[in-house]
Amino acid sequence: xxxxxxxxxxxxxxxxxxxxxxxxxxxxxxxxxxxxxxxxxxxxxxxxxxxxxxxxxxxxxxxxxxxxxxxxxxxxxxxxxxxxxxxxxxxxxxxxxxxxxxxxxxxxxxxxxxxxxxxxxxxxxxxxxxxxxxxxxxxxxxxxxxxxxxxxxxxxxxxxxxxxxxxxxxxxxxxxxxxxxxxxxxxxxxxxxxxxxxxxxxxxxxxxxxxxxxxxxxxxxxxxxxxxxxxxxxxxxxxxxxxxxxxxxxxxxxxxxxxxxxxxxxxxxxxxxxxxxxxxxxxxxxxxxxxxxxxxxxx
Length: 299
Known about the structure:
CATH topology of the largest domain: Spore Coat Polysaccharide Biosynthesis Protein SpsA, Chain A
Number of helices: 11
Structural class: alpha/beta
CATH architecture of the largest domain: Alpha-Beta Complex
Radius of gyration: 19 Å
Largest sheet: 9 strands, mixed
Helix content: 40-55%
Oligomer: single chain
Number of domains: 2
Shape: globular
């Protein structure tokens, strides 16, 4: 059966440098069709060789100030997008050869929000594995196509018409967690298409990874209780004391259930414990003291 044509805008938030961006663009080189576009929004001046770009249907480069964080890079790209579907990638990721086709196939149906799987290619260090399990392990293969409660921000796509409904919530920065929650409140489902695969490939330094985990946890907590009474904030803050045990436990159980990369999980567990502890402390601070400067630290 012939599927209706879906035009795609791929928004790439780029903050890791030209080498990562080059690999990301190259992975899309043979996939896009006429009418599709790529919008690269970076907080650095890209230095790219021309070869892979010559065969891409349409590439727009937008450079923002160095201090621009990732949610603002995303928001700017979404504002420029013209396709029926807006897909979000990050420059430290590469796309599977069928990624575009799988995203389009899912959106040719009634699914308004579609995300895919995240596999790890950053396997050079235990710290990189720890970040992968902590950030993206829930999107690791194998998995089944289904409605879910969360999707990965580096592999998620939206019908552009529904993004217009929540534009007021992301004009100053697109945080997929809060946008997806708002869309679910409006009756839209989040759909996981596990065959739409991207590969995470990024090296980390321990200090930076811990700081990032802290800020992400603090931002999450502060926005979670932005409009609730202090008593509830304090209660959640006290509960955050159990998170250094609860969060690693969830990750271990989930990974054991998938029956993959168990040796990598065992080896990286000390780093994983540090990252989840940093997140937990961030949540504690967010519940009691608000987001502080955490909103602008993701860059």
